[in-house]
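B., you asked whether I could sanity-check this one before it goes into the benchmark set. Here's the sequence:
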Amino acid sequence: MSQLLGVESHRAYTIGYARVSSHDQKQDLERQKEIIELFCAQNGWEHEIIQDLGSGMNYSKRGLKRLLRLITSGEIDRLVLTHKDRLLRFGSELVFSICEQFGVEIVIINRTEDASFEEDLANDVLEIITVFSARLYGSRSGQNKKMVEELKKISEKL
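And here's what the prediction gave me:
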């Protein structure tokens, strides 16, 4: 904002958001954070990284709640993600709409070609089954792991 309008100048502030689903993916979380750090530094953006550990279908993660508070309070100007699905598995478009309403730019570093409808559907079904089987059988159960591996094989054939 301009000093001519009698408003203090506003410094652009960026939030990078990184998320993985389980403790087994800690290395991926670190990799996401490094990619975001490097990307923000290359662009000269003052930034902070918010990280979460939990399902992309869990809307109650501490980091996600904090991110939404920052967006709706007007405290950030930019949101950086490594991939669109790191924010949420379902509902990221809603968060993107909220960003648009509050003037927050969204930067997705790794934009891949749009997946086919069948690939998206297979990935969504796999995510749903993974979450609910973990709740039903326990996240460490052999039965759960076997079922998820079989479903991954099937989805890869699509």
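One thing to flag: Confidence is low (pLDDT under 50) at residues 1-10. Otherwise nothing jumped out at me.
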